[in-house]
């Protein structure tokens, strides 16, 4: 039980100047201009869904180097006394077959062959139709204004943006839309994107129909035909967002909820199920032993995800239920040596840049919402005169024959973006997310454990120095302010530890909203520009 009335709960022990916001209605994301769009919806009488959607739409304009109109989206929404899950990720075009990639060893990260059908626009419409209070078109007004009149680019956004320009300028349409001067906008420079403004206006007017069945769909398909893409109008017309039942894992007195495969949320649940076999609360939160156990649990989870997770329609032999089986996870936990780092291989269950936002309102509605183009601007392909930067989620497919995540027409690829949600005793406690590719599941585990095991408040749990197991599932990167004693202790246990630079962005950025009597504690960490806002 979290001690809200205990002074220790309100401790802020880490290097940060952030303080949480307490209010009846909150919205928190990585970009203040986008948060302001959400706040404007509250002032119009809208609910948390309206605030979340206006924020999400604005993010495509004011932080285009991390997400866009041509991206994908997932959401968890507490409303009407239950948690609702939305998977709005897109599927592979019907011409995206294994044969198409027969001469490649890996999936391409950029260009048309990395593009699946974008799902973000469908998420906006689907969520608004089910839970929104304000007219759909109202949600677009701040974003359209930012795109039409321009906005001043922040140093953080500029840094992410400029890092991608050289690589992406060769992709069709990118330079014209997002680097017209041959570079990213400078910090404090006003950026205007009339193509985005026109596109968002058409989406608002048609409730998204123009994107999947009208002139915007035709523009995407024509650009593909003219520049070597696979997407056709029929692929866009066939897309739909799906309401899904979230998956969950109980840990201590909390339950973490995630969207199931094709996302990596299951990795956070696997790791927590393994950690549940250890008394993490018996040690301090930042010791080498505490971090070692969590790192090893994550390594085991990554191994299983890499081997077994893909589109749920093709996970026929080993399912999410198998991977989350308590007996199986207990066996996996026995592989953790408290004194030594291990090479982690997948088990056998049958034998035994992204942007995130959260909003919550005084009526109890809470929204955990994440959207992304993946790898910054995504594929780098931009549809002329529209500002639609297309994601590169096909990069998440495997080329291994027979793998559940093998590329194929109509399949959803393995996804990194995951919204998180905590409940206690069946009641909502906290909507949250941690951005940053494979960092996301790892971040969910670290935040959840700090709250469940050590009673930390959302701001402290977010500010705490993080570690990240790298793609080799062996190297562990830690933040610049990580405990020196913990680093030494991890190295003594055989971990290959790399200390990151102060402004390294690979550790993600968290946004959190925790329910308390009379409102919420909203927090945004110091790794990006965001601050929570509320009324």
Structural account:
By secondary structure, this protein is of the alpha+beta class. Helix content is 33%, strand content 18%. The chain contains 17 helices and 21 strands. The chain has helices spanning 32-43, 48-62, 120-131, 141-149, 155-168, 174-178, 194-206, 209-213, 215-227, 233-238, 265-275, 288-308, 320-323, 326-333, 439-454, 458-463, 484-492, and strands spanning 21-23, 26-29, 72-79, 82-87, 151-152, 190-191, 242-244, 247-251, 254-258, 355-360, 366-372, 382-383, 388-389, 420-424, 427-434, 467-469, 475-478, 496-499, 510-516, 519-524, 533-534. The strands form 5 sheets. A 7-stranded antiparallel sheet has the order 1-20-19-15-14-9-8. Strands 7-4-3-11-10-2-21 form a 7-stranded antiparallel sheet. β17 (475-478), α17 and β18 form a beta-alpha-beta unit. α4 (141-149) runs antiparallel to α7 (194-206) and α11 (265-275) runs parallel beside α15 (439-454). The radius of gyration is 22 Å and the shape is globular. The two termini are 27 Å apart. The model has no long low-confidence stretch (mean pLDDT 94).
């Amino acid at each position: 039980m979290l001690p809200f009335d205990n002074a220790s709960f309100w401790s802020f022990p880490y290097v940060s100047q952030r303080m949480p916001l307490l209010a009846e209605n909150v919205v928190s994301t990585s970009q203040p201009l986008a948060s302001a769009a959400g706040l404007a919806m509250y002032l119009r009488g809208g609910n948390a869904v309206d605030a979340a959607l206006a924020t999400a739409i604005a993010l495509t304009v004011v932080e285009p180097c991390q997400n866009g109109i041509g991206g994908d989206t997932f959401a968890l929404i507490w409303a009407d006394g239950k948690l609702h899950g939305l998977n709005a990720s897109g599927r592979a075009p019907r011409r995206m077959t294994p044969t198409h990639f027969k001469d490649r060893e890996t999936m391409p990260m950029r260009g048309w062959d990395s593009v699946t059908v974008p799902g973000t626009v469908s998420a906006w419409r689907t969520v608004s139709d089910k839970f929104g209070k304000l007219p759909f078109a109202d949600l677009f007004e701040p974003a359209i204004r930012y795109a039409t009149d321009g906005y001043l680019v922040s140093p953080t956004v500029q840094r992410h943006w400029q890092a991608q320009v050289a690589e992406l300028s060769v992709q069709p349409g990118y330079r014209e839309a997002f680097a017209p001067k041959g570079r990213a906008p400078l910090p404090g420079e006003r950026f205007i994107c009339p193509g985005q403004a026109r596109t968002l206006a058409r989406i608002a007017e048609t409730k998204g129909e123009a994107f999947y069945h009208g002139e915007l769909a035709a523009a995407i398909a024509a650009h593909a035909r003219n520049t070597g893409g696979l997407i056709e109008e029929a692929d866009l017309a066939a897309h739909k967002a799906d309401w899904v039942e979230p998956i969950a894992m109980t840990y201590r007195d909390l339950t973490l909820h995630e969207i199931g495969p094709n996302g990596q949320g299951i990795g956070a649940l696997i790791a927590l199920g393994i950690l549940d076999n250890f008394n993490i609360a018996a040690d301090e939160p930042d010791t080498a032993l505490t971090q070692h156990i969590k790192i090893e649990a994550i390594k085991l989870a990554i191994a299983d995800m890499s081997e077994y997770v893909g589109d749920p329609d093709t996970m026929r032999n080993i399912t999410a239920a198998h991977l989350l089986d308590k007996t199986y996870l207990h066996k996996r936990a026995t592989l953790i040596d408290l004194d030594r780092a291990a090479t982690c291989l997948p088990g056998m269950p049958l034998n035994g840049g992204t942007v995130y936002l959260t909003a919550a309102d005084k009526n109890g509605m809470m929204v955990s919402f994440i959207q992304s183009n993946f790898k910054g601007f995504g594929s780098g392909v931009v549809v002329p005169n529209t500002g639609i930067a297309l994601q590169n989620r096909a990069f998440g497919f495997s080329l291994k024959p027979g793998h559940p995540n093998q590329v194929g027409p109509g399949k959803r690829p393995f996804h990194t973006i995951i919204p998180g949600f905590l409940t206690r005793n069946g009641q909502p406690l906290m909507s949250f997310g941690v951005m940053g590719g494979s960092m996301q599941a790892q971040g969910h585990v670290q935040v959840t454990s700090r709250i469940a095991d050590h009673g930390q408040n959302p701001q402290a749990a977010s500010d705490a120095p993080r570690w990240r197991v790298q793609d080799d599932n062996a190297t562990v990167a830690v933040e610049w302010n990580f405990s020196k004693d913990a680093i030494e202790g991890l190295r003594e246990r055989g971990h290959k530890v790399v200390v990151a630079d102060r402004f390294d962005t690979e550790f993600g950025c968290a946004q959190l909203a925790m329910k308390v009597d009379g409102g919420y504690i909203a927090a945004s960490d110091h790794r990006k520009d965001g601050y929570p806002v509320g009324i």
